[in-house]
Amino acid sequence: MEAERLIKKWIEGRQLSRPPLSLIKQELKKRLKVMQKSGGDLTKLSLQEQKLIHQIKERTNKLNINNVSRTMAYLHFYFRYPEIHWSFLGHMVSRNGGWNMTDLKGELLSRLLSKKEQQEYFDFLERGNWLIFQDVFPQFLLYEQSLKRQTNLFYLLPYLHVSVFMEVIWNYCWENRNPYILAIALVINEQSYLEKRVIQNPYFKKTVLKTLEFKIQDFFQLNQILFPCYQEDELGREIQPRLVGQTLNQFDSLHQRILLGKRLYALLFQRSDILKSAFLWTKKRVHTGSRKDYWPHLFNQVNESLPGSLYKRRTDNCQLRPGMSRLFSPTLIQAWKTVQHADAEIGDWFEDWRVVRYFIDLGEQIDGDISQAYCNTLEKMELAILGQQKFFRLDQ
What we know:
The protein has helices spanning 2-14, 21-33, 47-63, 67-80, 85-103, 109-112, 115-149, 164-176, 179-199, 202-209, 212-219, 254-269, 272-284, 332-335, 371-395, and strands at 224-232, 238-247, 299-300, 315-316, 319-320, 327-328. By secondary structure, the chain is mainly alpha-helical. α4 (67-80) packs antiparallel against α5 (85-103), α4 (67-80) packs parallel to α7 and α7 packs antiparallel against α9 (179-199).
């Protein structure tokens, strides 16, 4: 019933007229001429406003502990405010971030990457996951307070170091209530926010983005975003979830990441069947970071392999071969310690009003079936491990 209520709200939102992009463009152009630095002098605010800013930062920091806490915070916010579609999209994508983190210590990638490489990849994924949360969740909390106080509080966004781009969008959507434009704006904002802080960061460019391993990861299509969808058999019993999603092959391209975000949004919110089944699945599965969350027939958070044993191929079209143990996929807590992050780099990414072109909905139909592609990925990794083992035996 709750899923159906959320879907109805979404359909109602889609029936609203799309905002004239000229109005948003005009306001963004105006703000570019008088751009102020992100941040502000808190002493210029009232004591009540200062207290609110402090509470929002404190609440965000409390939830921004690790991938699990962030991922579940997005979902719980969506339960309360289903009109904020990005919170569910962010939850689903963040689940994938956790799975990617634990893969580094799991059965397959741990055999292909050195411990140093595993750590560097984790640092890259964790920093991005942390940065997005500390930027977007204060926006959500300010929206919540605006609703409770029945007044627009988005003039406080600069004091939370949020881009002027989002201030314009939140102000527009506060008056016009369009879930599509807000969701796409958040996709644009979060990917643009990451660009200089992570993707163009010299350390990550050297250790991750320009490494041979990252190109191999691209070849294996490990940048697949999977959305598990709840399924039942004819007797109403839960069965193995269907996987839908998309693959990103140019992670270092801001344009491609934004387009991916738009496709993922369309996959969830233009297909009521996928939205309903994905939502039902998330309600039944607390995020742990282990891929056992969605495929316990293939993955286990307990390592069933003998220490130091040579790898033998275990899967066949995403099913275990007879007599083979499941693939080890640890929980996030098992795999990685909590990270203490340096403060986010200050600065506003917004420099060009022409980003409004991303709001245009081209009406692209997204199929999204990704199960076979994911099975092929697992097969490629298994073959790579077997090839590596063979090479080392010949080299000895």
